[in-house]
Amino acid sequence: MTNILEIFLGILTAVGGFVEIGELLFSASAGARFSYHLLWIVVLGTLGIIVYGEMAGRIAAVARRPVFELIRAGTGPRMGRLTLLAAVSVGWLTCAAEIGGVAIIFRLLWDLPYRLYVVAALAMLLISVRFISFKWIERIFGLGGLGMLIFVASAAKLHPDWSGVASGFVPNIPQLKSSAEGLDYAYFAVALLSSIMLPYETYFYASGGIEDGWKREDVPMNRFVASVGFTLGSVLTVALIMLGGQLYLPHGIDPDLPGSAALAPMAAYGRAGLLCALLGMFFAFAGAAIENGLAIGYNIAQFYRWPWGKHRPPRQVRRFTAAWIVVFVSAALLTISGADPVALVEYSIVFSVVILPLSYYAILQAARNKKLMGTNVNGPIANALAIFYLVLITLAALAAIPLLIFSHSGKA
Known about the structure:
Blueprint: H1 2-17, H2 21-34, H3 39-62, H4 67-109, H5 114-131, H6 134-144, H7 150-157, H8 162-168, H9 179-196, H10 199-211, H11 219-251, H12 258-261, H13 263-303, H14 318-336, H15 341-367, H16 370-373, H17 380-406
Helix pairs in contact: 1-6, 1-11, 2-9, 2-11, 2-15, 3-9, 3-10, 3-11, 3-15, 4-5, 4-10, 4-13, 4-14, 4-15, 5-14, 6-13, 7-11, 7-13, 9-15, 9-17, 10-13, 13-14, 15-17
């Protein structure tokens, strides 16, 4: 019964925490710009995060080795330190964007100064991470994020062009009016892929497996949770793209803020739909902020081989505790300084794909190591898929920054 409950909660947590502020805005904007033509990227990215999420969880269960320990061992201290610096920088920007997103949700509900809500969001995050256990953090923020399913219900209720939706899952390039629009399409494709395969998901997932005490016998549960959870979570992304194509595109709306993205549930279900969407976004954004803050603490501690763990008393893991506190406080200060959460989202999403190859190479290297993994080593299909995605994200990483510059963040 306990295993069934853990699987059930694991799937719901994956669904609730899948869509954070970056994926919300990029998915809705992608639909508003290119209708259903980028749905195939969701399928591509979802399979990729399942492949690498499952490998990271399997390594955690079998070898109890977190990702940044693998990166240090696989790439060496110098390259590993560079990867750590990049991961910390991207995670910090993402955390700041999520805190800004939580403050925006507060502001939409109650009209008080934005900076006051940033401080309130910071206090809530610090109290949650300090006093709530790891399992209950997963459950509260993951299950609360299920309010985002209102976007799925709204997409179905607003009568989409189902034939157009179906054709969007086939790899395609729409008819484009100019080379500038082609740059925009390429930019959104790379950004959407990156938002689905964000590296912090594997950092947090593997560390969380170790926190939860996964063992070799939990490998089947890990495979099931990664496959079903991320697949169900991707349904949210599909719904957001659909809403972008059927609601925002015809009216020329660019849903570049959480408030504008919440217009779709309001159009479908009125005030109740709006409140459900805002509640779901609150838990999703706050959960993503917690994941990023803890992931940075995990990464630094694992790389430098400090004691770490949310389950340990702070006095036993002082440097790990100090790391995540500094992340939350400094990210909130960045937001208070006037940094635009939408701009932070754009930069964090694009730069995330730049660090994916080194992170995922270390996971692949460990998962195919028979001495380390024993009978749970990668099989031929897992290896082939992992290599394909490693090549794909390497190409995306090379293209990401030039596309950001030449497309003017998708507004060429």
